[in-house]
Amino acid sequence: MKKIILLFVIGLFATWAFSQDLVKPNIDYSYKYIQSSDREGGEDIANAVPISGLPFNDTGFTCDNIDDYDVACPGYGESDAPDVVYSYTPTWGEIITIDLCGSLYDTKIFVYEATAGNVVACDDDFYPFGDACGSYVSKVEDLHLLGGQTYYIVIDGWSGDCGEYELSITGVPAIPISNWALGIGLLLISGFIVVHYRRKFA
Ligand SMILES: [Ca+2]
Ligand SMILES: [Ca+2]
Ligand SMILES: [Ca+2]
């Protein structure tokens, strides 16, 4: 009986500790795959360059590409700049940031979910004129992606602008620490109940 009470007390303490974020699971948020920068995005969705894992880095040049897509970001007009496309299908829910810091022209980023036209993010001028990351260069922050869903990341330009870009995409799992704590707490309580009834009916 003493052991059961001890187990119960440990379970309660662990649940409280995790819920207070005093103990954080040792989760490696970095990803295994880092792709080289020897290619640029595909011409369109059918030829999108797949991203197999994050973080992802690439460079490219859009002036020799075709204008296939456009989205007018809030507060901005339409454009007819050439664009390139990447695709990404996360296994689990993720929160990602897409950054064009270092690009050499007036860029624009937008993201389609599943199909062209279904816009879930759009940014034109995240970095202001004269910024170290480039004048009027784009960045999409904290975009929530669903696991198993395919997203098309389009690198485009303001008006008819084109040029060299530097792309960096990073991400973290969308499951917050508090959910992990809740799960572990429930597991411990379930374990306590099983041990209790096994002893009672043994
Ligand atoms: Ca375009
Ligand atoms: Ca294109
Ligand atoms: Ca821009």
What does this structure look like?
The chain is built from two helices and nine strands, in the order H-E-E-E-E-E-E-E-E-E-H. The strands form two sheets. Strands 1-3-8-5-6 form a five-stranded mixed beta sheet, with no helix packed on it. With 202 residues, the protein is α+β, with helices and mostly antiparallel strands. A hairpin with a 5-residue loop joins strand 5 and strand 6. It has one domain: Jelly Rolls (Sandwich). The structure holds calcium ion (3 copies). One calcium ion binds next to loops.
How many strands, which pairing sense, and closed or not: the largest β-sheet?
A: 5 strands, mixed
CATH architecture: Sandwich
Sum up the overall morphology in one term. Answer: elongated
Residues in helix, %: 10-25%
CATH class (first level) name: Mainly Beta
Rg (CA only): 23 Å
Major sheet: arrangement of strands: 1-3-8-5-6
Distance from N terminus to C terminus (CA atoms, Å) equals 13 Å
SSE arrangement, N to C: HEEEEEEEEEH
Please give the number of β-strands: 9
Low-confidence stretches: 15-38
The domain count comes to 1
**Class derived from helix and strand content:** alpha+beta
CATH topology: Jelly Rolls
Q: What is the helix tally?
A: 2
Mean pLDDT: 85
